[in-house]
Design goal:
The chain is α+β, with helices and mostly antiparallel strands. It has 6 helices and 3 strands.
Length: about 110
């Protein structure tokens, strides 16, 4: 492909900043662990905290960041709030990253 074609296809600065921010959000092992747990299904803060042996406060803080980054969504049931992976794209990104890292370990 020619340089001129590549330049035409290059996304705008705002899009690239959003991509960089996505990787920044994913750049913390605690958030990756939360996403792994949520890959198993929808859970409340208490259940996520128990799975990860963390405090509810610490999990809530990380969930807020994941929500702001549109990586997780919420659903209210009475007083309880349940968290889930936002959409299939998030699952695909996470699954690809996990597979890539695990593949490196097999070599």
């Amino acid at each position: 492909m020619e340089i001129s074609e590549i330049r035409k296809q290059l996304p705008g600065e705002r899009v690239m900043e959003a991509v960089a921010e996505l990787f920044n959000i994913l750049g913390y092992s605690t958030r990756a662990r939360i996403l792994f747990v949520l890959e198993q299904g929808e859970l409340c803060v208490n259940d996520i905290a128990e799975c990860l042996d963390m405090t509810k406060y610490a999990v809530s803080h990380q969930l807020r960041i994941l929500r702001q980054g549109k990586l997780v969504r919420t659903r209210r049931e009475g007083k309880e709030i349940f968290y889930a992976i936002d959409d299939e794209h998030v699952s695909q990104i996470f699954d690809c990253a996990l597979a890539h890292v695990q593949e490196d370990k097999k070599k």
